[in-house]
Amino acid sequence: MVYANECGVSEHVRRSSFRVVVAGGGVAGLEALLALRDLAGDRVELKLVCPEPEFVYRPMAVGEPFGRGHAARHRLVDIARDLGVTPIAEALDAVRADERTAVTDAGREVAYDGLLVAVGAHSEPVFRRALTWTPESDRELFAGLLADLEEGYSKRVAFVVPPGVASALPAYELALMTAWQAWGMNQDDVEVAIYTHEEAPLGLFGPRATAAVRQELVQAGVRAETGVYVAEAPGAPGELVLHPGGRRLEAQRVVALPRAAGPALRGLPCDARGFVPTDPHGAVPGVAGVWAAGDAIAFPVKQGGLAAQQADAAAEAIAAAAGVDLEPRPFRPVLRGMLLTGRGSAWMRQDLGGGAGEGEAERHALWWPPTKIAGRYLSPYLAALDGVDAVDAPTPPGEPVQLDLERELPSAADALRRASLRSEETRRGCARGAPRLAAEAQPGATLRLNAPGHRAWLH
Ligand SMILES: Cc1cc2nc3c(=O)[nH]c(=O)nc-3n(C[C@H](O)[C@H](O)[C@H](O)COP(=O)(O)OP(=O)(O)OC[C@H]3O[C@@H](n4cnc5c(N)ncnc54)[C@H](O)[C@@H]3O)c2cc1C
Q1: For ligand 1, what atom is nearest to the CA of residue 336?
Q2: Distance between CA 153 and CA 175 in Å, rounded?
Q3: Which residues pair with 164 in a beta bridge?
Q4: Residue of the nearest CA to atom 11 in ligand 1?
Q5: In this structure, are strands 18-23 and 114-117 parallel, antiparallel, or unpaired?
Q6: Which residue, by CA, sits nearest to atom 16 of ligand 1?
Q7: Contact call for residues 374 and 336 (beta carbons, < 8 A)
Q8: Ligand 1 atom closest to residue 265's alpha carbon, by position in its atom list
């Protein structure tokens, strides 16, 4: 991409690198930064515009009320330093596409050659009188529900997946964990039910996943009503009814998933719900130099693994625009889901782009590192930051795609090495236990963890 200034001198020739601004420090934003640094090296000058100081591993928030994991947090300034990215702690407010300028909420104008919009989606409650679950929900609210169960005040709990919810998975996790928790409290007369518009439990993941989830539900004693639409009763917002039929939803406590709403950014096109349209390479149609990825785009399924795949496709397209000799590959959605069942986890995989197959469902990891969000670059990077608890799990069977980071993703390996050393230092400062991660720091040395090596299997 070459622009001529008023003197006729090519900007691209004058500047040595292509300026990329990534808005959003979540799954899609970080995956794109890692991918760009790897694919384009010093050809790209990277800036991260994000108002939040931390990357939060939101999917694990479902485990927090049950003491089954937590949403890990990482400071974005540290990640930016690892990757040679300039952080700007402000929100993207508008895009002046004609001038290739991103404007922040503080009025700062940030010039770009390529902009990646990865600002995620907002969560909107669907029902006025239900407890709406989001990873940011007040933990005390759910803890209060569990306390009510323990003390026998509540006996019927409903988990609702309202129409328009882009990912039902957390509802199953919450229902299963609640049922097992109640059972563990000797409250074995508690009724836990799921009401969902899906035709089959987690049907998007394919028939094998549905069968596995049904088995988990039966074992936990959770009833699932599929193909139902839950709505507020006209004139009585506290009452919920099931359609078709108009039956009343009978429950003492109702927990609902939120609906996602798009960012509707000024200066960019969006659909009726505020989501940004994109082509298969993440480019925003009709807006040169702008790409988008993740929950912010108008793709009907919202999921971390998909957000990472969209970011990879956009990063390849941006790298090509920056002059890297590669053929950008389009986004080809593969759903990878890890379901917390309350007694362990179930792993599910379905190729959404390859026809309606059976999919896969196992009780062991289907990819590596075995993290909830499967990102080609992000998963191994975060595994290093987190100290890789995950590498204690058995490696997946089969013939995985194995990435040798030193050879295939050298920049990511450099970033990983820095991150590993930082997390090593952090752990040394902690009193608990011996360090679990050993990273060799010499330039060019092979990066090793204490288990199967620094590899990502995504198959
Ligand atoms: C309860 C729950 C459970 C889930 N479980 C799973 C799971 O098991 N597996 C899975 O793969 N996915 C799961 N997901 C979905 C997954 O978390 C999302 O799909 C994923 O985080 C989307 O990534 P993103 O980068 O688009 O958005 P986010 O990760 O939400 O990141 C958005 C980023 O943009 C920043 N931002 C917001 N506005 C602006 C702005 N104006 N300018 C600049 N930055 C901005 C935010 O601060 C944030 O850093 C779950 C989600 C929830 C809510």
Answers
A1: 11
A2: 18
A3: none
A4: 304
A5: parallel
A6: 304
A7: yes
A8: 41
Provide CATH 3.50.50.60 ranges for the chain: 11-121+262-321, 123-259
Look up the CATH number of domain 123-259: 3.50.50.60
Helical (H) or strand (E) element with 292:
strand 290-292
Tell how far the Cα of 295 is from the centroid of ligand 1, in angstroms.
6
Most distant pair of Cα atoms in the chain: their distance: 79
Distance CA 53, CA 63 (A): 23
Best of 115, 131, 133, 169 for a ligand 1 pocket test (most atoms within 8 Å of beta carbon): 169
- Best CA proximity match to 262, nearest among 291, 298, 286: 298
Provide the 3-class DSSP secondary structure of residue 175. helix
Q: Which residue's CA is the nearest one to ligand 1's atom 51?
A: 59
Q: Which atom of ligand 1 is nearest to the CA of 120?
A: 27
Distance (angstroms) between ligand 1 centre and the Cα of 153 equals 35
Residues whose beta carbon lies within 6 Å of some atom of ligand 1: 23-29, 49-52, 58-59, 61-62, 91-92, 118-120, 134-135, 167, 169-170, 294-296, 302-305, 307, 337-338, 372-373
pLDDT at 415: 53
From the number of C-beta atoms within 10 Å of its C-beta (0-12, 13-18, 19+), residue 392 rates as exposed
Q: Which amino acid is at 409?
A: L
Cβ atoms of 346 and 366 within 8 Å: the answer is: no
Residue-level pLDDT at 338: 96
User: Ligand 1, from 302, 306, 349: best to mutate by most atoms within 8 Å of Cβ?
Assistant: 302
pLDDT at 416 (0 to 100): 52
37 Cβ contact partners less than 8 Å away, ≥ 6 residues apart: 44, 46, 83, 84, 85, 411, 412, 415
pTM, rounded to two decimals:
0.85
Q: Domain 11-121+262-321 in CATH: superfamily?
A: FAD/NAD(P)-binding domain (3.50.50.60)
- The β-bridge relationship of strands 247-248 and 236-243 is antiparallel
Low-confidence ranges of the chain (pLDDT < 50): 1-14, 389-410, 412, 417, 420, 423-457, 459
pLDDT score at 162: 93
| pLDDT score, position 238 | 84
